[in-house]
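Why should sequence recovery work at all? Because a backbone constrains its sequence more than one might expect. Tight turns favour small or flexible residues, buried strands favour hydrophobic ones, and helices have their own preferences. The token representation captures these environments compactly. In the example below, the structure is given first.
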């Protein structure tokens, strides 16, 4: 679990940095709080609630925030930050920092301790509870004139005495605030309201809830916290929308995508940028809260998402390429947060995540937010380009702004007989880019084909180079070996020559020689048959009165290999 670094405002205050506190008039605060609690007919119509409530870990109501919310933003075409390499080097810290899934099931079968972030689905009738906060001046559900909590948070009574409702696993009446973050997340599935608490404890003697901070989010809107305010997370962001969830990763439809970014921690931060609203450190060279990392689509010519063969884990990695990771807390570098779910298998998760490192990511431009206004077609690209005929490439169209409601259908066209593409590709609402498959046919000589894209009367094109299958590599002499390497004079040994590739038509004649023909002789040549890579020959030795050595040599197309042979007296 990512609990090794002090949290949130504590980090800033311990470093001598005072968190920014924005004080609004009390009447305005009460009015804003009342407005968020209005149950509208539209919210009820979209409600998706389990049959029995409250329940831990059930699928949440959809959508989780609007399509244009920062958690759901397509960043595949966002520009790379000018200091990306330096930030990645800071994370690597002189080594190679691997990704780690900060989630899973029970630490051991039936244990109280758990991995990952639990969450509760509740109804709109769940009795609201008052919470006393350490950082009350940046928390919701507080009377700002007195600093006291008011009945606001729909905390299930089960969380008090039952395991697995609070982060870490222990019930809320167990005080672990000094050793764990102890988050408690609640979703009102009727109104699609999200409530999050940090550092929770229920004092049974006082019948009273305590927490470090708390935040309310209306998932029907994209309202951001006031600048300088924390939430239940250090960056001032909601936690739940950034979790890797089992129901998304292991969706039975293998074509289904995960359409949001993931929460990630780093060991230190420096300030904050949009969409974050709160700082928790001033470490020089570190990323700010709210920074985004994006998994590259090509590293060394290969797609890092394909390093795992598991289609469900690839789905997680694809989301990292399209929506990225958002730095939301101080913790352990490159720990990606997900839900507590007993269906997770750490023996699959951990090895797959370790296939990726910080160096496989770019930091996108700090504070990036896509331009507003009507979307127009910006670019069309193909990767890989060039491509060997008979293999596939991937095309990508990018808009100047996010696609409108209903998406943006971009028409595609090619006149090349060596290319096959769909007639159009849909950029989903709220996204700025979409990909489409490009099939190519085998060619005998290098050729090119053009693909054009058109949207709202704007056309762009890309030229794809299609190359023939390269000829097989020319065979070269790889090695010459003897077995055995020591023999009594008068005996014989077997020599073996090996090529780097199959011998050409007619075979490959390897010239042989001995450095001392009075001690050992070899045939003038050995032929490796066409299509083969190896052949053997005999080395004949003569009797000797004292131990001696001889070198056997083989040569082919300017490459010579040798092997020593010891010849012994009887």
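From this structural description, the recovered sequence reads:
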């Amino acid at each position: 679990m990512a609990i090794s670094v002090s949290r949130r405002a504590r980090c800033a205050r311990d470093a001598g940095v005072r968190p920014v506190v924005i004080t609004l008039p009390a009447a305005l605060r009460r009015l804003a709080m009342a407005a968020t609690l209005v149950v509208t007919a539209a919210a009820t119509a979209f409600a998706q609630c389990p049959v029995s409530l409250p329940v831990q870990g059930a699928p949440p109501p959809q959508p989780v925030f609007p399509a244009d919310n920062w958690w759901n933003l397509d960043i595949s075409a966002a520009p790379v930050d000018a200091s990306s390499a330096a930030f990645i080097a800071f994370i690597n810290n002189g080594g190679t920092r691997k990704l780690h899934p900060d989630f899973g099931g029970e630490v051991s079968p039936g244990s109280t301790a758990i991995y990952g972030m639990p969450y509760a689905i509740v109804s709109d009738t769940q009795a609201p509870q008052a919470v006393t906060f350490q950082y009350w001046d940046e928390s919701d559900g507080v009377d700002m004139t007195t600093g006291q909590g008011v009945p606001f948070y729909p905390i299930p009574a089960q969380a008090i005495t039952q395991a697995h409702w609070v982060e870490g696993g222990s019930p809320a009446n167990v005080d672990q605030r000094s050793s764990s973050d102890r988050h408690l997340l609640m979703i009102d599935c009727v109104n699609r309201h999200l409530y999050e608490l940090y550092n929770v404890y229920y004092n049974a003697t006082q019948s009273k809830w305590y927490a470090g901070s708390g935040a309310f989010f209306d998932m029907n809107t994209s309202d951001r916290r006031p600048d300088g305010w924390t939430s239940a997370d250090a960056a001032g962001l909601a936690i739940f929308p950034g979790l890797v969830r089992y129901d998304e990763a292991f969706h039975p439809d293998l074509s289904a995508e995960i359409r949001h970014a993931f929460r990630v921690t780093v060991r230190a931060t420096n300030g904050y940028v949009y969409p974050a609203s709160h700082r928790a450190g001033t470490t020089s060279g570190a990323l700010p809260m709210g920074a985004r990392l994006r998994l590259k689509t090509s590293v060394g010519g290969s797609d890092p998402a394909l390093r795992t063969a598991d289609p469900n884990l690839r789905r997680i990695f694809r989301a990292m390429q399209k929506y990225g990771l958002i730095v939301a807390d101080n913790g352990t570098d490159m720990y990606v947060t997900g839900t507590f779910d007993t269906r997770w298998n750490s023996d699959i998760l951990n090895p797959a995540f370790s296939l990726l490192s910080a160096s496989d990511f770019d930091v996108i431009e700090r504070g990036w937010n896509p331009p507003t206004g009507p979307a127009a077609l910006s670019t069309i690209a193909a990767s890989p380009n060039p491509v060997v005929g008979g293999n596939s490439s991937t095309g990508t169209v990018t808009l100047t702004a996010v696609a409108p409601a209903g998406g943006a259908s971009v028409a595609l066209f090619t006149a090349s007989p060596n290319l096959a593409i769909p007639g159009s590709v849909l950029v989903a609402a709220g996204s700025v880019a979409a990909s489409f498959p490009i099939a190519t046919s085998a060619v005998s000589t290098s050729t090119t084909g053009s693909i054009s894209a058109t949207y709202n009367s704007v056309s762009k094109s890309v030229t794809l180079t299609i190359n023939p299958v390269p000829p097989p590599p020319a065979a070269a002499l790889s090695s010459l070996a003897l077995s055995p390497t020591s023999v009594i004079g008068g005996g014989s040994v077997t020599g073996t020559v090996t090529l780097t590739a199959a011998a050409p038509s007619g075979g490959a004649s390897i010239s042989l020689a001995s450095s001392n023909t009075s001690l050992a002789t070899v045939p003038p040549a050995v032929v490796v048959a066409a299509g083969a890579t190896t052949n053997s020959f005999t080395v004949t030795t003569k009797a000797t009165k004292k131990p001696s050595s001889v070198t056997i040599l083989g040569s082919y197309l300017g490459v010579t290999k040798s092997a020593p042979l010891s010849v012994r007296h009887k």
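A few observations help interpret the result. Residues 1-47 have pLDDT under 50 and may be disordered.
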